[in-house]
Specification:
By secondary structure, this protein is mainly alpha-helical. It folds into two domains: 38 residues, no CATH class; 39 residues. Helices cover 60% and strands 0% of the residues. It is built from four helices and no strands. The radius of gyration is 21 Å and the shape is elongated. The protein starts with 10 loop residues before the first helix and ends with a helix.
């Protein structure tokens, strides 16, 4: 993309790059590697769980579905324990 002599992008290249960034839900700077990708404002106190959270999107759809089922069951079990204890 762009002209080798000055590194600028043509109008159509800017438009394509902008559309790609929108599709990927990143900024143009993130798309070209000028800035680190923005992470959602999610606070996970457990460092190991936080690292695993960052890897979830790389899992297959099937593994993500299994993870949803597992997490849902753990959250429900915890909620049930609080209700029974209270």
């Amino acid at each position: 993309m762009g002209r080798p002599d000055n590194g600028s992008l043509s109008r159509s290249e800017w438009h394509s790059s902008s559309r790609l960034a929108d599709l990927l839900e990143v900024s143009l700077d993130e798309l070209v590697g000028r800035t680190e990708p923005h992470e959602p404002d999610l606070k996970i106190r457990n460092p190991k769980l936080h690292q695993l959270y960052r890897e979830i999107d790389r899992l297959s759809d099937e593994d993500q579905k299994a993870l949803v089922i597992l997490l849902d069951s753990l959250v429900k079990r915890s909620q049930m324990g609080k209700v029974l204890a209270g």
